[in-house]
Amino acid sequence: MKMFVVFVILVHVSQHASAVDLYEGEEFVLLPCEYHTFDMDDPSVVWSRYDLNPPTVHQRQQEGDEFIYQNQLYSGRTSMMADALETGDLSLNLTKLRLSDSGTYTCTVRSSRGKQRVREVQLKVKERFPPWAKALLVLLVLGLIVSGGLLVHFRQYFMSVYQVEVDSGVESVLLPCKTTVHLPEDVTVEWTDRYNRKVHLFQNGSDKPEEQNQDYKARTEMKRNLLEPGDLSLTLKYPTDRDSDTFTCTVYNRERKILMKKQVLLEVKVYQVEVGSGEESVLLPCKTTVHLLRHVTVEWRDSDNRKVHVYQNGSDQREEQNQYYRDRTEMKRNLLEPGDLSLTLKYPTYTDSNTFTCTVYSRERKILKKKQVLLKVKVYQVEVDSGEESVLLPCKTTVHLPEDVRVEWTDRYRKVHVYQNSSDQPEEQNQDYRDRTEMKRNLQEPGDLSLTLKYPTYRDIDIYTCTVYNRERKILMKKQVLLEVKVYQVEVDSGEESVLLPCKTTVHLPEDVTVEWTDSDNRKVHVYQNGSDQPEEQNQYYRDRTEMKRNLQEPGDLSLTLKYPTDRDSNTFTCTVYNRERKILMKKQVLLKVKVCQVEVEEGAESVQLPFKTTANLPEDATVRWIRYEPYRTVHVYKNGSDRPDKQNQDYRDRTEMKEDLLKTGDLSLTLKYPKERDTGRYCCNVYSKNIWRWKTVQLTVRGRTRNRSSSIDPTPLMADQSV
Ligand SMILES: *[C@@H]1O[C@H](CO)[C@@H](O)[C@H](O)[C@H]1NC(C)=O
Q: Which GO cellular component does the record give, naming just one (predicted)?
């Protein structure tokens, strides 16, 4: 369940083009490309982006990687499988993703036979969801799995430390550290935080502010009464949520021997305000009971330190404000006591979820007051199954809207639907949404601007914003909806004869529909048109392996049977039904997960079998190769009707055997004789001919007998010590 959600959110693989969408900062992405380079003379492969100069992203040739042509942007961030040219898996591993990595990547194979553009992959690196939105989704999942167990554990851990809780906004907090033992005069007292940064240092009878970390400058004061009972408590001024931390008070004698160590857990609570996206405004409270002078400066900032609102010399300072908050803030100006410096933030949306800090400075820039407010903007959530005909994204208002409003529905980047001058504006719409949206037009009060989105797939998971502008482009209303699209998941073991990918409809389908099953790389898995299957349209991976139910009578069952699934088939499959005019009638998705085949054997066994059964009657010119990864070794080759021991690695000479009539029966299993512990590893079988390509991984573990014996011995005394 957890894996599934993470997969859906982070790796959006398009069904429109071969496209990969993900978020900046991702550890890596694998851009897929496969080609039968193992059959070619002196092959090389180049990954390029033709919008760059130089265009080369990565180059691999028989001798290894060639970096001299590489574009600087990719320096140190690309890699390919060590044995890419031998296996035909030419995928590019791009690490530490940046927004600027978005673009079209072309995988080109060259050989003595010429040059071939194999495939293009669109990569789109998006900005991340705000951390809270992600946390929310992960928490939802964790909540289901852990159901609280984790929290209990954390609480117990914290209980062992003295805890101080304080509200953000107080002038100071006292971190206690007392001792009843007599301390010598020349002790050193060191207060540190969790990162071991110096919070306060007292040495040789005086404070040492120069040793202090920047974050704590001018904010600490230590009691100096070191006589018994010694009180070394620390006063920390203007605590904010950033000060929530574990502080350690350590006392050393002259020889740096620790005399005492105490910890305090400080929790600075931040006032929380929750509001629904769609409210006209939200109030961030900041009040003070102290008398404020006329010349104070009030600064509201967010947690990115952007200026939200600045008030100085008796008036608002709009030019100091960050662009993002322009025209959206209003501060109470009643600075007489009790001073109310609360801020009104208009049209809050999920991106406004943030910690806001209100700081009051004197004319000398001395902090008089600091207070924080955590704003949480809740977004209405809609959940739908992939396969539903449509989903409704609600946006309603009870206020009367003028006739000439402009309504804009957007996802986080693009225009989804625009309505202006009393009609829809499809030319403004992003093409991913073309023909898929319908807005209610009943703008009478109460105005219902809800949007119908047709054929939702997991690519549509996003936050949608409905904004209403008046004629002067002033915002009248803003509302958000989080759309979650669930995908049906099927999991099978590798080795099953077949798996059923369900796709059913209860609506009556016309006779002349086209049904297309595609995978997430947009490869055609199965095509049904004009009343019959169209195998010539099918990708070579799926050739001879699919069967679609043809009973298109209502209720229409368009489920697909995929035969002999292997780990390579783990993918998101989309079933789309078109009418004669190529209009989509239905779209449904299935996430298939096929487990990697695991084989275990003990060293000393006569032989072990690496199983691979696929469809019978494979083409006679098919080549079968068993290889092993890391280190790359050719284990067995069968070509032109016979075994090719000359192609085989030394290690496997005379130790491998394949079945009789293997192409006829489709049983490509490999027998490996006298398996040794060092045979443990990942094996892969590749069958290739003009029309067919099959692929299966087998993870082999050979348990060594010597290792077994030694691990059954009692742990050594040292290990026993450590485990206590
Ligand atoms: C891609 O490279 C990174 C960094 O070297 C590595 O951690 C990751 O496992 C690689 N991914 C794949 C699928 O090989």
A: external side of plasma membrane
Residues in the ligand 1 pocket, defined by CB under 6 Å? 28, 30, 79, 93, 95
Phi-psi region of 86 (alpha: psi -120 to 50; beta: other; left: phi over 0): alpha
Q: Residue 58 contacts by C-beta under 8 Å, 6 or more apart in sequence?
A: 46, 47, 65, 70, 74, 78, 79, 80, 92
Q: Helix crossing, 149-159 with 131-146: angle to 10°? A: 100
Amino acid symbol at 169: G
Which value, to the nearest 10 degrees, does the dihedral of the CA atoms of residues 520, 523, 526, 527 take? 110
689 pLDDT more than 60: yes
Is-contact 468 407, C-beta < 8 A?
Answer: yes
Alpha-carbon span 9 to 524, nearest angstrom:
24
Cβ pair 201, 221 in contact under 8 A: no
Task: Give residue-wise pLDDT tens across range 414-442.
Answer: 999 999 988 899 999 998 898 899 987 66
* Residue 302, burial from CB neighbour count under 10 angstroms (0-12, 13-18, 19+): middle
Mutate to test the pocket of ligand 1, among 27, 567, 568 (most ligand atoms within 8 A of CB): 27
The two three-digit tokens of residue 637, written as one number: 């080759």
Question: 78 C-alpha vs ligand 1 centroid, how far in Å?
Answer: 9
Chain centroid to CA 249: 39
| Gap between the Cα atoms of 635 and 650, Å rounded | 9
- For the CA of 81, the closest atom of ligand 1 is 14
pLDDT tens per residue across span 279-329: 889 999 888 766 666 778 899 999 888 999 999 888 889 999 998 898 899
3-state secondary structure 219-260: CEEECCCCCCCEECCEEEECCCHHHCEEEEEEEECCCCCEEE
d(CA 87, CA 81): 9
DSSP string over 439-454: E----SSSPB--EEEE
